[in-house]
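Changelog excerpt

This revision adds worked examples to the README so contributors can see how folded entries look when concatenated. The first example is reproduced verbatim below.
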Amino acid sequence: MNINSVKNFVLPFAICLLIALALYPDSSLNPEAYSTEGLELNYNISEDLSLVVQEQPIIHNMFTPYLGKSFEGFKEALAFKESRGDYFTVNTLGYLGKYQFGSETLKVIGIYSPNKFLYNPELQEKAFMANAERNKWVLRKDIKRFEGKLIGGVKVTESGILAAAHLAGPGSVKKFLRSYGGNNFADAYGSTVKHYMKKFSGYDTSMVVPDKKAKATL
């Protein structure tokens, strides 16, 4: 196609377009109707970010601070009450770590070095489990006898019993249950068996297996 042919084609087309725009200002031929002014059209993603988006796996069971009534929830709630969850703290009475163990209780579950215990979080977690297993064995008959009953206005649950035993020892829990709340041990800070039994009720502690000889070993 030569230049003259192009001119003969373009010029009439341009004239027709101008006439259409003049006669139909609101028609679909109005270029202003397609203006992108004021719109955010920059959808570019940086190379680094795009790689992150592509490589991240879809995780359906991500960790959440809310642990509910699970066993982990039980441990963390009790630890927060005892020490605010601090593995390396010692209170004014010499109780140690995240779960505030006394040296005599540690000996029962096979730990004879309080200093080693204090600076070893893994050992502290194992100590908590061993102590719970031992307490559950000692209190197994009382759990069966009193679970679900109301004593002193508190509904008795296995987790409440184990929490109270952690505070005061299984012997004090036996006395509370068998006296129907009349014998309510309180520690030096005023925490009672009844308070722990109520505060930590209803958690799932079924994974704690009763074990008379439970020990904490690495």
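The second example, added in the same revision:
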Amino acid sequence: MNGVSAGMLVALVVAGGAGAGIRYVLDVLLMQGRRDAFPVGILVINVTGSGLLGLLTGLGTLVAADWLAVLGIGLLGGYTTFSTVSVDTIQLMRRGRRDWAIVNLVGTFAMAVIAAAIGIVIGGLLPG
């Protein structure tokens, strides 16, 4: 596999599965009793995941490339989810909540980008 070791592939798969599991548990906890409410759980997940990936990126050479891949691509890739934002946005529109749909789509994007930028800045401030 063009430069990817079997061990790295296993680490990515395990980390991705762990990230997806953490996302599921956190979303269930945040949305408990709020079935038809605004999908705040996925919003929180995507914003925190973007911030954490920004932090990892901002740390630069303090994080080895293999660890950056396992944590960034694997764990945080499994944790965050653009596809759920897309489906939630369509479901909100189908329920007649255009206002929530727009806030979900635009708000998720804006807050995730801001969180990533903050993470990169914070990571860059740490001594290396």
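Reviewer comment on example two: DSSP finds five helices and no strands in the chain. Helices lie at 6-31, 40-58, 65-79, 82-94, 98-125.
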